[in-house]
Automatic annotation (TrEMBL):
It is a multi-pass membrane protein. Gene3D superfamilies: MFS general substrate transporter like domains. PANTHER family: FI19708P1-RELATED, SOLUTE CARRIER FAMILY 17. One of its GO terms (molecular function) is transmembrane transporter activity. Pfam families: MFS_1. It comes from the Bacteria. This is MFS transporter.
Length: 487
């Protein structure tokens, strides 16, 4: 009788981690939409509420972005299990605090702090899967686990209206928005503690105290830098969009600082031509993810004139598609490699299908009077291909980078990619304020996806592995897998 392998248990726990952390970051979009619709909270007095709402979302991702590379570095130093646990507990506490504080600046600061903690999860999750999963199931594992991202965004999108209704019964009507943060933050804290117990059974004496202090040091610098840019930009009278652009410039300064340290143990990651191409393409990937993740409820509500609750249900077709797309994409990628092919053709094919469907969705929105079910079908179809391509790209990163550099490689991938997440909510919100509709923002999104396809075309996969008689992979030695490809 076949036993349940330990790596699959790991997949389940990491999937739960993705679910709660994704719900924490995704709930801000529906909450902001509700505030705009009801003219309450931080957005009541804004003359450009969509741009301000987008900035709030973008500043979260500024924090999330700044700890991507440090998170990978700390995972390589203290252990990936250590940083994953700290990240989830941190995110749970910070999300609950988001539902307690009052005032725009305080809320922004706490959301930045939440992002700084959550930003360390991705690189360590991807690295731990690559380390613990048989190579012939690597892409499938990454796809199954990151399905939690789709689950979390779906939960936040579908249930935020119900949690706000519950909040209206517990708090004053204009304070109802607090309840989603309190409930989902508590859920994240429970999952974080559960994962800590699970990891303790595998490895005793994880250095939580030292790693937390090191994380706090990075977070303090990140928080000070992000809030300084916000205050200076606000005092100078800059628009919310320009503040978001300055936050991206801050992140690029971090990338430049890291890149100049050419003699560090991660120099091969930073100088890899193929990893750089994937990382740049991921700006479009993260732009698309959080354009629809943040604004999909508002897009559907504007286009169909439907209620907040019904719009959330239709918008959930975009997030829910990942439940199918993530694992299927990962599985197909592994099948292709086992049969002597590569991952790249599937990556390009799926991204191209997403581009075409997103373009069609933009024309449907621009035409006006869109059928709510046509929108649901297009959102689901485009998102299925979009989610299927991500674990394929993740597996390519793991194939290209040497194992000892996985944390740094995935950290840099998400650091660069999060440029799109920072700008997307703010730029799209500004376009909505300027044009009175969402079609322009959708066409911008489609254009960026097309750019990602072009970049993927020039990526060289790692040397093809051979399959031994047991069906397990034998890695063919090559410069790409030993020290990462350069050029």
């Amino acid at each position: 009788m076949r036993t349940w392998p330990a790596y699959r248990t790991l997949w389940v726990f990491l999937l739960l981690g993705w679910t709660v952390s994704a719900a924490d970051r995704a709930l801000t979009g529906p909450v902001v939409t509700w505030m705009i619709d009801n003219n309450v909270g931080f957005l009541a007095d804004s003359d450009k509420p969509y741009a301000l709402g987008g900035l709030i979302g973008g500043l979260f991702f500024a924090g999330y972005m700044l700890t991507q590379f440090p998170g990978g570095y700390l995972g390589d130093k203290y252990g990936h299990r250590t940083i994953i646990t700290i990240s989830l507990v941190w995110a749970g506490i910070a999300t609950m605090v988001s539902g307690i504080i009052s005032g725009l600046v305080a809320f922004i600061a706490v959301r930045v702090i939440t992002g700084l903690g959550e930003g360390t999860f991705y690189s360590n999750d991807r690295s731990l899967i690559a380390e613990q999963t048989p190579q012939e199931k690597r892409s499938l594992g990454m796809g199954v686990v990151i399905t939690g991202l789709a689950l979390g965004i779906t939960i936040a999108t579908v249930f935020t209206p119900d949690l706000i209704d519950l909040g209206g019964k517990v708090f004053a009507a204009d304070q109802a928005w607090r309840m989603p943060f309190l409930v989902l933050g508590a859920a994240t804290l429970v999952v974080g503690v559960s994962i800590a117990v699970y990891f303790r059974r595998q490895q005793h004496g994880l250095p939580y105290a030292r790693a937390t202090l090191h994380m706090l040091g990075f977070a303090a610098i990140g928080l000070a830098a992000i809030m300084a840019v916000y205050f200076v930009g606000d005092a100078a009278g800059l628009s919310d969009l320009w503040i978001a652009i300055l936050e991206v410039a801050l992140a690029l300064m971090l990338v430049g600082f890291v890149f100049t340290r050419r003699n560090t143990d991660v120099g091969v990651v930073l100088k890899s031509r193929d990893l750089v191409l994937i990382n740049l393409a991921f700006i479009a990937v993260l732009w698309n993810l959080w354009f629809f993740g943040f604004w999909s409820v508002s897009i559907v509500a504007d286009a169909a004139g439907s209620s907040f609750g019904r719009s959330a249900l239709i918008a959930a077709f975009n997030a829910g598609a990942g439940i199918l797309g993530f694992p299927v994409g990962g599985w197909l990628s592994d099948v292709a490699v086992r049969h002597g092919g590569g991952r790249k053709p599937l990556l390009i094919a799926f991204t191209s299908a997403q581009f075409v469907l997103t373009l069609i969705f933009g024309f449907v929105i621009a035409a006006g009077g869109a059928s709510i079910w046509l929108m649901a079908a297009l959102l689901f179809s485009a998102s299925t291909f979009f989610n299927a391509m991500q674990p394929i790209a993740h597996a390519m990163i793991a194939d290209i980078a040497a194992p000892e550099h996985h944390g740094a490689a995935f950290g840099m991938n998400n650091l660069i990619g999060e440029i799109g997440a920072v700008l997307s909510p703010a730029v799209s919100g500004a376009l909505r304020d300027a044009t009175g509709g969402w079609s322009a923002a959708i066409f911008v999104d489609a254009g960026l996806i097309l750019g990602a396809i072009v970049l993927f075309l020039f990526v060289r996969e790692a040397a093809r592995s051979e399959v031994g008689p047991t069906g397990r992979f034998r890695r063919a030695p090559s410069p790409a897998t030993v020290s990462s490809s350069t050029g």
